[in-house]
């Protein structure tokens, strides 16, 4: 073995110490690489720490921490959704990268697949009808009874086997609600440019159509109540307005699963009613 | 220590060792080569000149396969033919579950609960790659491997002009990463590795549309071009090590025939994991035929470049 000749005038270190020096350098460099990559990977915790990013998950999602642990980030749920409600998290979601979520205002889950296809597609049980027994059901997450789809109420035993909600609708801006103002609504719920879709039983039982192709005509706006796909999840409730006149407002019931259709169809801008992801039911 | 154990430890990071004992057949071949050095080389060069240049046969097949598999995912979704649903982390082929072994491991460790579909998909993929060569997933399927190969070409071109130098790391770093990511998944309950996995990011970007996560993949490629050749695949990616373990029992591998080797070393220059080709160095082959170790990605670059056909694909029990 011939070691490379050293520079003239400088004593060349013996080969063994040169080798050791190189090995030490490689070790330090490798330790640096390990620390750097690990550090970068752990920054994935920042966006989800303290619930900073609170995404509305598809139906049947486990509680957020268990969901993030069990989702394998394959997007099979995305592929089966007939209204393309499911999107995948990006790098800004940190550990939630590649996990499915629903932006209800843009496209809610309207259950037009009838069976929650996303749950059936999930290979890991991150979306599931049957939560493993060791995972507790949080107070306020349990639905009082299996949610019945309005589309299928005439079929006995067709209620969804969902046991927990993924979120809860709330009248977040009552002052913007047309019903609260005593107003009606006519026209396209979200304007001509809105791309969201929904299944309308009276138009086509099986095929969702764009919301803009289905204009409404209401003397008192109640879109959130009539378009809700779940039976008994929301109803118009009378109350006395500030001027003492009798008024109506949408009241969310315990049967709400958090699908977000009410938020999607709400004609107010921004929506008067919205789904709060991971919110629990509290008795008033 | 058997050769297999040695090769396995080399995959984990151990330096290749000179064989303690060389079989008499191998010794005879080497003795012949030394004795008839000039004639041996001349004859072989003549033989080489007579055989057509294999060019990039296997590389082209491999790139076509890699593109086809990923395109299959994309088209299946876009055309809604539902033949191959999902992404590389987990999918369904004609309804049958396929789950990436490393992704499955991360989820099992993080969630600590295993549903039946996950088991079925994991076993299927395990069997698939146990037959097809383990790390052949890397070079024949992984989309990052292709980008990384292109980045490597740029790196080498720049290195020839003296603009960049390859900074190597200890190969054992990947083993450390594998253990750390497994430990992190178990301890934190998050699939930490998936946040960075360029395989998952690229697969999802192809199928579901691009996102900001591609910026991370781009940074990785820049790092590989400017600083360290093939750094992610060589020193970091736990997916590669997971499939490497599967490949340890695989009958499909690249094998080396000492008799045909001219010991030029071209194969080691093109190899992602040149330590598996240590056997091609003079005096390192203990047998006349040696199957390369499990870290080999079966990419075929060495098969393409070896004009004397000392390296070839081999299916144990068939060829």
Describe this structure in words.
The complex is a heterodimer of chains A (284) and B (319). Chain A is of the alpha+beta class. Chain A is 19% helix and 14% strand. Chain A contains six helices and ten strands. In chain A, the strands form five sheets. Chain A has a two-stranded antiparallel ribbon with strand order 1-2. Chain B is mainly alpha-helical and 319 residues long. Chain B folds into two domains: 3-52 and 251-315, no CATH class; 58-245, no CATH class. In chain B, strands 1-2-3 form a three-stranded antiparallel β-sheet. A three-stranded antiparallel β-sheet of chain B has the order 5-4-6, with no helix packed on it. In chain B, β1 and β2 form a beta hairpin. In chain B, α4 (57-78) crosses α11 (198-208), α5 runs parallel beside α9 (172-188) and α9 (172-188) crosses α14 (238-247). The longest helix of chain B has 22 residues, at 57-78. The relative contact order of chain B is 0.17. Chains A and B meet through α1, α2 and α3 of A and β1, β2, α5, α6 and α9 of B.
Global morphology of chain B: globular
Query: Largest beta sheet of chain A: what is the strand line-up?
Result: 1-2
Estimated share of beta-strand residues of chain B: 5-15%
Supply Rg of chain B.
21 Å
Strand segment tally of chain A: 10
Strand order within the widest sheet of chain B?
1-2-3
Low-confidence stretches of chain A: none
Total number of domains of chain B: 2
Key features of this structure:
heterodimer, A: 284 residues, alpha+beta, two-stranded antiparallel sheet, two-stranded antiparallel ribbon, 6 helices, 10 strands, 14% strand, elongated, B: 319 residues, mainly alpha, 2 domains, three-stranded antiparallel β-sheet, 57% helix, globular
């Amino acid at each position: 073995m011939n070691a490379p000749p050293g520079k003239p005038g400088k004593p060349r270190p013996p080969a063994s110490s040169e080798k050791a020096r190189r090995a030490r350098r490689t070790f330090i460099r490798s330790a640096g690489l390990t620390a750097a990559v690990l550090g970068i990977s752990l920054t994935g915790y920042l966006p989800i720490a303290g619930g900073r990013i609170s995404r509305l998950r598809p139906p049947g999602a486990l509680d957020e921490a268990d969901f993030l642990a069990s989702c394998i980030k394959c997007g099979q749920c995305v592929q089966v959704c007939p209204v393309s409600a499911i999107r995948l998290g990006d790098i800004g979601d940190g550990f939630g990268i590649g996990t499915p979520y629903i932006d209800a205002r843009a496209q809610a889950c309207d259950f037009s697949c009838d069976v929650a296809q996303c749950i059936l597609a999930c290979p890991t049980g991150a979306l599931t009808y049957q939560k493993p027994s060791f995972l507790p059901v949080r107070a306020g997450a349990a639905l009082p009874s299996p949610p019945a789809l309005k589309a299928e109420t005439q079929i006995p035993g067709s209620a969804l086997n969902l046991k927990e909600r993924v979120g809860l609708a709330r009248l977040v801006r009552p002052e913007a609600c047309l019903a609260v103002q005593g107003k009606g609504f006519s026209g396209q719920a979200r304007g001509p440019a809105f791309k969201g879709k929904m299944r309308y039983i009276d138009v086509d039982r099986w095929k969702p159509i764009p919301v803009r192709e289905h204009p409404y005509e209401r003397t008192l706006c109640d879109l959130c109540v009539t378009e809700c796909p779940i039976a008994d999840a929301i109803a118009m409730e009378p109350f006395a307005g500030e001027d003492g006149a009798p008024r109506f407002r949408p009241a969310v019931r315990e049967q709400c699963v958090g699908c977000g259709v009410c938020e999607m169809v709400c004609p107010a801008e921004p929506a008067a009613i919205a789904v709060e992801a991971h919110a629990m039911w509290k008795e008033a | 220590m058997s050769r297999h154990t040695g090769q396995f430890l080399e995959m984990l990071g151990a330096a290749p060792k000179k064989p303690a004992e060389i079989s008499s057949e191998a010794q005879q071949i080497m003795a012949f080569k030394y004795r008839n050095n000039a004639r041996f080389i001349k004859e072989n060069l003549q033989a080489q000149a007579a055989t057509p240049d294999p060019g990039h046969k296997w590389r082209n097949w491999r790139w076509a396969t890699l593109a086809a598999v990923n395109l299959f995912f994309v088209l299946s979704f876009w055309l809604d033919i539902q033949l191959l649903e999902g992404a590389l982390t987990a999918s369904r082929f004609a309804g049958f579950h396929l789950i990436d072994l490393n992704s499955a491991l991360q989820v099992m460790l993080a969630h600590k609960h295993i549903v039946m579909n996950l088991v079925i998909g994991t076993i299927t993929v395990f069997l698939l790659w146990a037959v097809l060569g383990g790390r052949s997933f890397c070079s024949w399927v992984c989309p990052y491997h292709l980008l990384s190969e292109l980045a490597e070409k740029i790196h080498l071109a720049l290195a020839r002009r003296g603009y960049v130098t390859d900074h190597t790391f200890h190969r054992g770093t990947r083993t450390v990463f594998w253990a750390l990511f497994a430990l992190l998944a178990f301890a934190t309950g998050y699939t930490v590795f998936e946040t960075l996995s360029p395989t998952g990011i690229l697969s999802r970007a192809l199928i579901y549309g691009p996102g900001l996560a591609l910026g991370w993949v781009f940074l990785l490629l820049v790092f590989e071009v400017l600083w360290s050749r093939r750094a992610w695949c060589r020193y970091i990616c736990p997916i590669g090590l997971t499939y490497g373990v599967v490949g340890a029992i695989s009958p499909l591998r690249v094998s080396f025939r000492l008799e045909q080797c001219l010991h030029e070393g071209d194969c080691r220059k093109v190899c992602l994991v040149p330590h598996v080709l240590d056997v091609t160095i003079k005096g390192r082959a203990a047998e006349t035929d040696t199957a390369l170790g499990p870290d080999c990605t079966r990419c075929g670059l060495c098969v393409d470049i070896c004009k004397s056909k000392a390296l070839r694909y081999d299916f144990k029990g068939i060829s």
